[in-house]
Design goal:
This protein has one domain: YbaK/aminoacyl-tRNA synthetase-associated domain (YbaK protein). β7 and β8 form a beta hairpin. It contains 5 helices and 10 strands, in the order αβαβββαβαβββαββ. It is α+β, with helices and mostly antiparallel strands. The termini are far apart. The strands form 3 sheets. Strands 5-2-3-6-9 form a 5-stranded mixed sheet. The chain has a 3-stranded antiparallel sheet with strand order 1-8-7.
Length: 157
């Protein structure tokens, strides 16, 4: 089955791979472990609300947390906050843990952490829990029409 995100990549002529895994939880660390890839390559898509822009999608590696102050600066907002868990599906059409920066029911501004460009490939949600898309980071930026910025704060492991 092709998700909306995969269909968008097909239309754009972008090469990708879909990998599925059985998910009991929906965290980036679990996905990295089950897919046997570094956590730095698994990018989680967070739904954020800006006071000026409205909804924003922020993609940061599983090894990082979102730096809200940095996102405020690059997105032109004075204040940003995480969208409520109960709002995610209504806003994006995706379930929490399966949010993709591609193919959502509405198009929102997307910001991708600069560390993505250091990776040979990145993994993002295909739009369903337990299904990941693997693609070149430059292709993710192009397909999502994303702004690349330093928005992730590395966490110590």
């Amino acid at each position: 089955m092709k998700t909306q995100a995969a269909q968008l990549l097909d239309k754009a002529g972008i090469r990708y791979e879909i990998r599925e895994f059985r998910e009991e939880d929906f965290g980036a660390a679990e996905a990295a472990e089950k897919l046997q890839i570094p956590l730095e390559q698994v990018f989680k898509t967070l739904v954020v609300r800006g006071d000026r822009t409205g909804i924003i999608l922020a993609c940061v590696p599983g090894s990082a947390t979102l730096n809200l102050k940095a996102l405020e600066k690059v997105s032109g907002n004075k204040r940003v906050e995480m969208a409520g868990k109960e709002e995610i599906h209504r806003l994006t059409g995706y379930l929490r843990g399966g949010v993709s920066p591609l193919g959502g029911k509405k198009t929102y501004p997307v910001f991708v952490d600069r560390s993505a460009l250091e990776q040979p490939m990145v993994s993002i949600s295909a739009g369903m829990r337990g299904m990941q898309l693997f693609l070149a980071p430059q292709d993710l930026v192009r397909a999502a029409r994303a702004t690349v910025a330093d928005i992730g704060e590395r966490t110590e492991t």
